[in-house]
Design brief:
Layout (H helix, E strand, L loop, with lengths): L11 H12 L3 E8 L4 E8 L7 H9 L1 E3 L3 H9 L3 E3 L11 H6 L4 E9 L2 E10 L7 H40 L5 E3 L5 E4 L1 H7 L5 H7 L5
Antiparallel strand pairs: 1-2, 1-6, 2-3, 4-5, 5-6, 7-8
Length: 215
Amino acid sequence: MLIDAESEIPSALATLQLLVTRLDWNLGVFWIVNEIRMVLECSDFYSPTPDRFPDFQTVSRARHFAFGQGLPGSAWQSRTVVHYPDLSLAQNFPRLSVAASEHLRTGVAFPLYVGKRVLGIIEMFNAEPRDLAPATQEFLVALGGQIGVFLERFYAGRTLQAADAQFVLLAEAASLAIFTIDDQSNILFANPAVEKVFWPQGRGVDWWEADGGDA
């Protein structure tokens, strides 16, 4: 449903478009857990009618939600589907005034998780009252787990890339010789200090090859 190939990770916006369209809601909001600040931050906002909910989009993009705060924070805290069938009666919905001004009536949120770790939240809203059948809730819980796996894979890849970049930066500036090889002894990386250690006269690789590889 969410990806065309196992190696591809769907964007937040593509996921929202698919969910909102297939499940026939008026809009969706994708929240990411900032694990350093411990807040939810709006990653993407989607509606099939972009000009219909401008104020709600502005407020959602500008806000951060703490653990347990608002509809997305409640789904984060409970780690399950949270449904507000009538937003006007919800006691924990800080965006009520702007939602009411744009005639939003119903909201639902579910966590994107791996095990007990919540990585994000998806919210969906509708201008008409919407019931949430038990089967639909079960589907959203399962879907949240599936998307959570993709998110974790994405974060792991991004963290590895950042670590590689940091290693290269530190190694380039190091005074010690640093190099890496693969399992076939091919040199994958060598910092500038390597040449100073192996070719102290500054003659480098060209000199080594010209002498037939003899020291």
